[in-house]
Amino acid sequence: MPLNEGSVCPDESGYEAKPLADHVENVINFCDFEGTGITHSVLSDNLQMRNCEISAWEVMRTLDDFDIDYGQNRAPDFFPNTEFKVVQHKPLINTTKPFEGCNQDVVCLCMDVSGSMLREERIIVMSEAVQLYILSFLRNGSAVGIVSFASYDSLHADMTEITSRSVRERLMSNVPTQAGGGTNIADGLNQCKKILQQYTQGNTRNTRILLHSDGQGNIGDAIQEIIDEGIILDTVLFDQGGYLADKAVETGGNQYLASDDFGQINLLRFYEETASRYCKKEEREAVVKSEQVVIKSGQSNYHGIAYFDATIGMNTKLVFKADVDVQVNVSAYLSATVTEDSRIKAVTITIEDLVDESINYTITKRNPNLDALVTVTITSAPVPGVEALQILHKVNSRTFEFGPSTQLISYIGVFQGFSPVSNLQVGVILEDPTGTLTDIPHSDDGTGMDAVPNDGFYTGALGSHNIIGQSDYSYYGLDIGISGEGVLPEQEYVGRIQKRCTQCNKLGTVSRSLTGKRF
Q1: Which residues of the chain fall below pLDDT 70?
Q2: Which pLDDT belongs to residue 283?
Q3: CA-to-CA distance for 370 and 155, rounded, in angstroms?
Q4: CA 311, 314, 315, 320 torsion: positive or negative?
Q5: Contact of 377 with 290, CB cutoff 8 Å
Q6: Three-state SS for 44?
Q7: Domains, in order of start, for the chain
Q8: Are 241 and 185 in contact (CB under 8 A)?
Q9: How far apart are CA 341 and CA 345, in angstroms?
Q10: Helix-helix angle 222-229:185-200, to 10 degrees
Q11: Out of 6, 160, 246, 438, which could bridge 430 as a Cys pair, Cβ 3.0 to 4.6 Å?
């Protein structure tokens, strides 16, 4: 941008180009304006495309008003007399209150404690993950409430602002750990809506409900009332629950699959992403490593390493969640702050200063005769003054009827600003309802389904596929992994990399792990 003709149009990759502020006045029409021969980008990941699948311009052109040229000179009697009522605009809730460079997160944790959550120990996985969310992931200044539901709802903690470690521990002690009864989701959602209204004095716009559930149950009109209030619904679903997943998207929220095989790792990655929801893109923390480690009986420890590219390395956090007691040591960082919580067997290490290209860590079992399963989640924030990497993900549809000619096409874009990052290994792990994993490799070399080499968009495809599940309508989860020595175009590196190099186009070892959504 700007194009010579002054239009906002998609680039060759199929994603829309974004005009710089200096050139906005040069934009004279939209990309599907009559006669241009260019159509709106169907890959745009926004509410307009999710709900309508056509551009706002196309919608406007169907209206009768579009046929009237209001720019022409009109006689005074052309316009009818009009009366206006001036209504004072409601102020935004205190989500505009800054904390650590981000706006305040106001969230009600809505937890399913019905009898079905006893299956596969889902209640234990959920309650321990929520406690760790409160302890290590939610930002200082966030406001949190806790509600559960089974046959009826229960309020465990009213909306509370996180200001200290003691407040976090008090909230953690209120997280429910027992399950039994029916699944009255509506009562849980309504109770969350009530305490959000009370805390914000009725201005619930951009507050959120984080719903954990494994079923559909009684929903009633609760979802529509949430939409009417402007509340965002994020869903963590331990089962198919397609209706809830779709409604989360409708509210502007996200929907995630917490499988029984990989529940903790999916939840912790998702929690980190939600904790940065109200931060600017250039301030959001990235998950640089997310894995599950098995330390067998007879093995005393595990040595790991995490890599940090040239764009990140501030406020680094290493979170270790184990099923037995462990201790963790990080080499070469005497300033690291270590927090242990024996109740949920978690260790959190925080390093505020800029870290080097890598961190070595050692996990040691306190009892070497036990097997240990440890979930490792490592996050880091962008370096000030350096453009953060942006990861874009899109599939060609949210619903599929798989047959011999059906293809799931996945696009993953990796950019620093408007510059594509090449030379990466990018993959998607597809998880079906039985927990079976399928690797979908992606490439940016112009072969196969990839249209343009080295444009920053990595493309992968899944061909004909047999639906797996108890019905013909099943939900699948996606997880994204990115690694490799990132490279920028030679002519575009100047001024972009300032962390360790000012005259090079090498980003160093890029490592990212993102939760996949459902389709």
Answers
A1: 1-54, 57-58, 61-101, 216-217, 240-242, 259-266, 398-405, 433, 464-475, 491-504, 516-519
A2: 79
A3: 38
A4: positive
A5: yes
A6: coil
A7: 7-78 (no CATH), 93-279 (3.40.50.410), 285-384 (2.60.120.380), 389-514 (2.60.40)
A8: no
A9: 6
A10: 20
A11: 438
